[in-house]
Design a protein that fits this description.
The complex is a heterodimer of chains A (121) and B (195). Chain A has 5 helices and no strands. With 121 residues, chain A is mostly helical. The longest helix of chain B has 26 residues. Chain B starts with a helix and ends in a 12-residue tail after the last helix. In chain B, helix 2 packs antiparallel against helix 3 and helix 9 crosses helix 10. Classes of the chains: A mainly alpha (121), B mainly alpha (195).
């Protein structure tokens, strides 16, 4: 027989009852939290620290919440990619004035030819 | 001891309040997290991180809601973030019996198969629902929160929660019905066991 809906809460409670922290883990957790609370009280920050600190914290929280790559490693990898790819692409990105002029002229010629064709039609 | 005073004591840096916080909430938070993320060990991490966040950001708790609702809000956000890491989740290949490592102080070695089947019937069924449905089922049925409280915790409108709960309920009924048909033959469908 399918479990009736009005018994779901009781049934779920009884099924989940065995899921709990062990006493050691609870003690460990309490110790860590106490330490965190103590540290927080010790360095209770002045309000002036506020904005920048808050922004950094949010940034770190976002990073840590969405990736599993440490921030330092991420920055390093990004830097290496930029340096590596930059070296390869730099030749294409460099603009020589005479080449640029030539490209511009060719472009203009093409457009002119196209326009002439359109006006003939 | 009222909940409000617990928050005040934490704000004042009272370390005994931390013990009270852990004693009162850690197991309940763990069970909800386990239902949402479907992995007890991961759920333990989620709860530890959530409690850590709560303690270190207690000054941000304005007291508009109860500390109970606030804690669940932090936990649900944490669980959502964890579930968003889909790529990593895909790589991890969860073993299917996630609750087996947990000590069962109420069980006996001679527990028969039927009893075991019955014992995890609902949580196994909940585990098959999509994440957002698991959230509302855990909060509404396990925590027995009102729809408004679930809406507060999840940050969704009441109407959304109502419709989500309706769909979750229907899916759960279907799963339980299907499981009942399979279970009547005394067989557990292996791939359906997620916890």
């Amino acid at each position: 027989m399918v479990l009736p809906e009005n018994e779901w809460s009781t049934k779920l409670s009884s099924e989940m009852h065995t899921v709990s922290f062990s006493e050691e883990k609870k003690e460990q957790l309490v110790l860590e939290l106490r330490k965190a609370l103590r540290e927080k009280s010790d360095r209770r920050s002045p309000v002036s620290e506020g904005l920048w600190h808050g922004f950094c914290m949010k940034l770190f929280e976002f990073w840590n919440g969405t990736t599993e790559i440490p921030l330092a490693a991420g920055v390093l990898v990004g830097f290496i990619i930029v340096v590596g790819v930059g070296g390869l692409v730099s030749d294409f990105l460099l603009v020589d004035p005479s080449t640029a002029l030539l490209l511009l002229q060719t472009g203009t010629e093409t457009v002119r030819t196209f326009n002439q064709g359109v006006s003939v039609l | 001891m009222s909940r409000g005073s617990l928050a005040e004591r934490l704000k004042a840096g009272d370390e005994d309040a931390v013990t009270e916080l852990v004693e009162c909430y850690s197991d309940r938070l763990l069970r909800v997290a386990a239902l949402i993320v479907r992995d007890v060990h991961l759920a333990e991490d989620m709860v530890q991180e959530s409690l850590f966040d709560a303690v270190t950001h207690i000054h941000q708790f304005r007291g508009d809601s109860s500390i109970y609702t606030w804690l669940y809000t932090i936990l649900v956000r944490r669980c959502r973030k964890q579930l968003k890491k889909k790529f990593w989740n895909m790589l991890s290949f969860w073993p299917k019996e996630r609750f087996d490592g947990i000590e069962d102080s109420h069980g006996s070695p001679e527990r028969d198969v039927e009893d075991t089947l019955d014992r995890t019937q609902l949580r196994d069924a909940v585990a098959k629902l999509p994440a957002r449905h698991r959230e509302v089922i855990a909060l509404y049925y396990y925590e027995q929160m009102s729809i408004e409280e679930v809406a507060d915790v999840t940050g969704e409108p009441v109407g959304t929660i109502k419709s989500r709960l309706y769909r979750a309920r229907k899916s759960l009924q279907e799963i339980l019905g299907r499981r009942d048909t399979n279970g009547s033959a005394g067989k557990r469908v292996e791939h359906e066991t997620i916890f």
